[in-house]
Amino acid sequence: MSVSQSLLVIVLLILLSAFFSVAEIALAASRRLRLRQLADDGDPRAERALRVQEAPGEYFTVVQVGQNAVAILGGIVGEGAFSPALIQFFSLWFEPSLASTLGFLLSFFLITSAFILLADLLPRRISMNEPERLIVLVLAPMHWFVVVFKPVIWFYNLATDTLFRLLGLPATRDERITSEDILAMTEAGTKAGVLAAREQQVIANVFELDSRIVASAMTQRERMAFFFRDDADAIIRARIAEEPFSTYPVCDGDIDRVIGYVDAKDLFQRALNNQPLSLMDDSLIHKVLIVPDRLSLAEVLEQFRQVHEDFAVIVNEYSRVVGVVTLNDVMSTVMGDLVSASEEEEQIVRRDEHSWLIDGVTPIEDVMRVLQLDDMPHDDEYETLGGFLMVMLRRVPRRTDSVTWGGYKFEVMDVDSYRIDQVMVTQLPETPPPSAAPSAAAAAKVQSSAAQAAKKHHS
Length: 459
Description:
This protein has helices spanning 3-29, 32-40, 44-54, 57-90, 96-129, 131-148, 150-167, 179-192, 197-208, 233-242, 264-272, 297-307, 327-335, 341-347, 364-371, 385-393, 437-458, and strands spanning 219-220, 227-228, 247-251, 258-263, 285-286, 289-292, 311-315, 321-326, 348-352, 355-359, 402-405, 408-416, 419-427. The chain is α+β, with helices and mostly antiparallel strands. It is elongated. The protein has 17 helices and 13 strands. Helix content is 57%, strand content 14%. The protein has 4 domains: 3-167; 179-208, no CATH class; 214-336, CBS-domain; 341-427, Uridine Diphospho-n-acetylenolpyruvylglucosamine Reductase, domain 3. Helix 1 runs antiparallel to helix 4 (57-90), helix 1 (3-29) runs parallel beside helix 5 and helix 8 (179-192) packs antiparallel against helix 9. Strands 9-10-13-12-11 form a 5-stranded antiparallel β-sheet. A 4-stranded mixed β-sheet has the order 1-8-7-6.
C-alpha cells in the first residue's frame, strides 16, 4: 500500500472513529426532558433516542467495538505508512538502530495525536454542545451497525451482564429526577442568565415547603391580634384600628381556648350599618382550623385546600397556642422578597457591608440565605435565630451574650421577657496568617493577665 493510499485509509478511519465518539457522547449527554419535548413536537427520532437511553447496552457495545477496532487498524496502517519513510529520514544522521527507534516513536506520536485530536477531543466537544440535535442524526446509521455486529454484541453483552451480576452493580441507570436535580438545573440556568436570581430563589423556596415547619412562617403568640368573646364594642373597634388584619382569633377567657375566628369584613359591615360589635353573636364566629406546630408548610397548604380556609391557629403538643398562620404567610415564604420585601426589611436590617441587625424570631432559613451560609449546627432543634442562640448557649441568652459560627459573630443586643428581641450579626475578618498567631495569642494572654490582676486589686 502506497503512502497516499495509507493516508486515505487513515483519514477514513479517523472519520469513522469520530462518528463513534459523536454517537457515544450525544446519547450520554442528551437530556431526557429535551428529547421528550422533541418527541411531543412530532420528531419520531427523539422517541427512538429515548428508547435507546432506557436500554443502551447494545448501542454502547457497538461504539466500544467500533472505536477499539478503528484504533487498532489505525495503528497498523499508520505504522506501515510512516515508519519506513521516517526511519530512512533519521538514518541520514543516526545509526540504524537509533533511527529505527526514532522513526517508530515519531510515527506512533503522529498517528496517536491525529486520532486523539480529530477522532476524540474535537467530536466529543461538539457533541457536548448540541447532544439532542446530533443524537437524532446518528441513530439511523448506528441501527445498521447494531444489525451488522449482532453476534459480537451478543457475546460482549453476555460477558458484561455476567460481570455486573457478579459485582452486584445496577444494569440500568436511574432515570428518576430528584429535587436536587431540578435545583441544580435552575442554578445552572441562573448562572447562564436564563433565569433571574429571584426566580431561581422562588423555585428553591417551593422545594423547601416540605422541610420548613409551619412555626418558621407563623405569627408568634406574643404578636397575635385576637379578641376575647366578651370584649366590649369599644375594645373591638380600638383593636381593629390599632392592628388591622383580615382575620382575628376569638378566645373564651384565655388565649389558649380558641373557639373560632371572626372575619374583619363582617365587623366592617356591621360598623358601616351602625350596628353594635359583639362577639357573643354566634353568626360572626367561624370554625377555625387548628394545626400542630410540627407540620411542614406543604402539609399546612394541603389542609388549607381540604377545608377551603386560609387561616389557622397553631398549637404545640401541650395544646398551647403558639401562633397563627395564613395562606399569605406561606406564599410569602415561597415568593420571598418578591412580595414581602417590607417584612423582610423589618426583620433583617443591613447596617453596613459587614453587619446586620436581625430580629430574634426571624426564620433561620432566611438568616442563612442572607448570610450565605450552607448549614447551621443542630439545625433540627430550632426554627428561628433566637432558637439557634439558645441551643448554642444551652441557656436563655442575656444581653451581650454572643456566639461565633461560620465566620460570623451573633451578639444579643436586646432581650424582652426572656425573648431575644434583636441580634447583631457581624462578619468576622479573615483568619490572620500563621505567623501572626503567636502575637495574637500573646496579646490575649496579656489581656487575661491584666484582667486577673485588676480583679485581685479590687478584691
